[in-house]
Amino acid sequence: MTATPQTTREVVDAFFARFSAGDVTGLLDLFADRVDFLVPGAPNVPWTGARSGREQIAEFFAVLGTELTPEEFTIDATIVEDGHAVVTGRSRFGVLSTGKSFLNEFALHFTVADGRIIGYRMHEDSHAISAAFAA
User: Fold this and answer.
1) Cα–Cα distance between 91 and 73 in angstroms, integer?
2) What is the spatial distance between Cα 82 and Cα 119, in angstroms, rounded to a whole number?
3) What number is the average pLDDT over the span 23-43?
4) In which band, very low, low, confident or very high, does the pLDDT at 5 lie, cut at 50, 70 and 90?
5) Which of 27, 92, 132, 133 fits as disulfide partner to 102, beta carbons 3.0 to 4.6 Å?
6) Could you report the per-residue pLDDT of 45-79, keeping only the tens digit for each?
7) CA-to-CA separations, 103 to 6, 89, 114, in angstroms, rounded
8) Environment class of residue 69 by beta-carbon count within 10 Å: exposed (0-12), middle (13-18) or buried (19+)?
9) Pairing relation of β-strands 68-81 and 116-123?
10) Largest alpha-carbon pair distance within the chain?
11) φ and ψ at 124, to 5 degrees?
């Protein structure tokens, strides 16, 4: 049985472990019932926008799984202070609908309270991603 993460660092580490394993159910268990969830970006990128409930967050991860093929994912740094964590890294994905790929330098800001993610902000290379989705 997997221990339930409690600290901000444990929650963030569990997030990336479950994400890389494709464990969407386990991933969703890390989120509170209501989340301040935002991924700004171009309207032609299907996962951008604000979300709040687990159902909407599940849609976000479903879209990633149906629109992209993973090619590279690297975490460079994780900085934790109290209930906040910022993770920087680099990813490369292929876009199934266009056959193009993009390199994405990203930063994720997590806010954690009571062992659950209550805030999620993805900062990514929206220009490169939008170009990869353009026909």
Assistant:
1) 4
2) 14
3) 95
4) confident
5) 132
6) 999 999 999 999 999 999 999 999 999 999 999 99
7) 32, 11, 34
8) exposed
9) unpaired
10) 46
11) -135, 175
pTM of the model: 0.92
Residue 32: CB atoms within 10 Å: 18
Q: What is the spatial distance between Cα 97 and Cα 110, in angstroms, rounded to a whole number?
A: 30
| SS3 letters across the chain | CCCCCCCHHHHHHHHHHHHHHCCHHHHHCCEEEEEEEEECCCCCCCCCEEEEEHHHHHHHHHHHHHHEEEEEEEEEEEEEECCEEEEEEEEEEEECCCCCEEEEEEEEEEEEECCEEEEEEEECCHHHHHHHHCC
Rg of the chain, C-alpha, whole Å? 14
- In this structure, what token pair is assigned to residue 94? 């292929």
pLDDT tens readout for residues 86-117? 999 999 999 999 999 999 999 999 999 999 99
Among 11, 8, 35, 47, smallest CA distance to 132 is for 47
